[in-house]
Amino acid sequence: MQRQELGDFFSVICFKAAISGMEEALGEKATAIALTTAGRARGKQLAADLELVGKGLPLDVLASKLAYALGKDGTRLCIIEKIVEEGDAIRAYTSETLCSSGEAQGSSRRCTFTLGAVWGALEAVLGKRFQGKHVESVLQGGSHDVFEFTVLG
Amino acid sequence: MPINVKKIESILQNFVSGTSDIQGATLVSPDGLSLASVLPGGMDDERVSAMSASMLSLGERIGSELARGTVDRIYVEGNKGFGILTSCGEDAVLLVLATESAKQGMLMLEIKRLVSELKLVLM
User: Fold this and answer.
1) Are residues B5 and A153, on separate chains, in Cβ contact within 8 Å?
2) How confident is the model at residue B89 (pLDDT cuts 50, 70, 90)?
3) What ipTM, to 2 d.p.?
């Protein structure tokens, strides 16, 4: 069913309230696992919708496609500035993430759903399994929320 | 040092094929990522991994909130068998699936041995 008047978007406030409620009931860790897993599924589905699965695109091309799909002209999950290879890892530089929105400076909150979405998309497009981590946070003084992915096994 | 996934897979494979009534086993990271698995066909590896880590985490919360202390394992008993989740050090969670005819004492002993073996690889 389509929402005739309200359309596809709703407030970050409601989404954050849902997360807080889940954390209250299930604990932060279990909630984080669930949200990261949900994000990964979303990322994989997004890659499939964009017909990018297994394409092995260069990271800058992939970044621009994800930036469009998830950014201001897409679902507005986050802004993806760039995805680059640094040493053995792939790093995604993001900002205005859903997870960090509304958090106070200094908050220890980590990205879960947003991390998962980028993670799932990377896995699907590149055809590799990764271990993903949120390694730099705008809430901890960073210029971006940086997600780092290392190949697993 | 990277985790030796091949070695872990080999240990799980030997455990599942060498122990009667064991149907599957999987080792997952605490954040729900599959490290190695030997599961019955039709089970989604990623879903099982996320579920396992979430269950253990939820169990730990129950242990804490309801003053049950440190959780050693989570035990699911259904009419078709058992699902046993065991913490495997700080870096992993082990899920073992067994048939309903499995002898619980033997099962626990086998899992204890398996955890010791896996911990050596994870160190």
Assistant:
1) yes
2) confident
3) 0.75
